[in-house]
């Protein structure tokens, strides 16, 4: 009596051929590499499938909500989508930030707003980008969210250009005059000193002119804006160079020529007045007054 196929032992089972159901003695074929790969990743695909299924169900329900209420309940939708995604395993795995040098890390973390293990779909790249670009140090930011759970952030920082002094307070500014830091002023190396109201927004042009005359620039201690209209150069030796309004570049070039020909900037002067285009006035330090000699004692007769 033949045994039913259900009672056959595993080692006695044979594959039925497709030609009429006759038994074949060929050995079972090993699953292909593609099938093995799919089997191993089936467990990884299930959470994403269930998440998408839940999101689709929420989307269908939302269509009905919006149809009944024109304003819609999009905040409700986003919160529930994030909950479904989190329950399905779609959470933040890693946050990568590139380009950070001077921006405080705690400000970046606060702007991102999520951490490892938080629901991935609760993170908005658009909102995070807007928060990051409100940080003084950050000029622009690029934010990407991947379904793998990774968040990639590329920031482009403003470069420290000068130290701005105004009413006894100091701050680091970029070339456009934006204040980027008021702390650790000495952390960025030697920077030009801009003094006065509005100097932080106008100083870059004058500094570029000085850079073309290095012998002048290395003797300058500060760029002082007077009445938000005209510049003075305060030299390290205490001399004030008064530049003409709207003609600073030509005046700086002339200073370079005078320095090379007569070492004008190395002289002990109070001021060099260049405000008039056709003349140059030099003010010397006043000569020290002679020290009066003590009166001579008159000789008197001695008593014996």
Automatic annotation (TrEMBL):
InterPro entries (UniProt xref): Cell_div_FtsQ/DivIB_C, FtsQ, FtsQ_C_sf, POTRA, POTRA_FtsQ_type
Topological type in the membrane: Single-pass type II membrane protein
UniProt name for this protein: Cell division protein FtsQ
Compartments (UniProt record): Cell inner membrane; Membrane
HAMAP family per the UniProt record, alphabetical: FtsQ_subfam (MF_00911)
Domain POTRA: 90-158
Source superkingdom: Bacteria
Role: Essential cell division protein.
Homology family: Belongs to the FtsQ/DivIB family. FtsQ subfamily.
Keywords: Cell cycle, Cell division, Cell inner membrane, Cell membrane, Membrane, Transmembrane, Transmembrane helix
One Gene Ontology cellular component annotation held by this UniProt entry: plasma membrane
Natural source organism: Teichococcus rhizosphaerae
Keyword Nuclease appears in the UniProt entry: no
One record GO biological process: cell septum assembly
């Amino acid at each position: 009596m033949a045994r039913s196929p259900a009672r056959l032992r595993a080692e006695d089972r044979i594959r039925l051929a497709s030609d009429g159901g006759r038994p074949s003695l060929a050995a079972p074929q090993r699953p292909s590499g593609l099938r093995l790969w799919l089997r191993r990743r089936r467990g990884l695909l299930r959470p994403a499938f269930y998440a998408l299924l839940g999101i689709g169900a929420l989307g269908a329900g939302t269509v009905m909500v919006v149809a009944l209420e024109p304003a819609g309940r999009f905040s409700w939708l986003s919160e529930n989508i994030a909950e479904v995604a989190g329950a399905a395993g779609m959470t933040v795995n890693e946050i990568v930030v590139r380009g950070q040098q001077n921006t405080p890390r705690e400000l970046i973390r606060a702007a991102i707003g999520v951490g490892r293990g938080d629901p991935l779909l609760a993170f908005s790249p658009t909102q995070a980008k807007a928060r990051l670009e409100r940080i003084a140090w950050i000029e622009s930011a690029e934010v990407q969210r991947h379904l793998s759970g990774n968040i990639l952030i590329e920031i482009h920082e403003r470069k420290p250009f000068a130290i701005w002094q105004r009413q006894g307070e100091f701050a680091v500014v970029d070339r456009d005059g934006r204040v980027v830091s008021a702390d650790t002023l000495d952390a960025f190396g030697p920077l030009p000193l801009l003094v006065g109201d509005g100097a932080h927004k106008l100083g870059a042009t004058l500094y570029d002119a000085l850079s073309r005359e290095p012998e002048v620039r290395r003797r300058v201690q500060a760029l002082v804006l007077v009445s938000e209209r005209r510049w003075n150069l305060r030299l390290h030796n205490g001399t004030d160079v008064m530049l003409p309004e709207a003609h600073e570049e030509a005046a700086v070039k002339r200073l370079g020529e005078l320095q090379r020909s007569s070492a004008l900037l190395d002289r002990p002067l109070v001021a060099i007045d260049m405000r008039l285009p056709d003349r140059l006035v030099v003010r010397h330090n006043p000569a020290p007054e002679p020290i009066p000699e003590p009166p001579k004692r008159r000789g008197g007769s001695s008593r014996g």
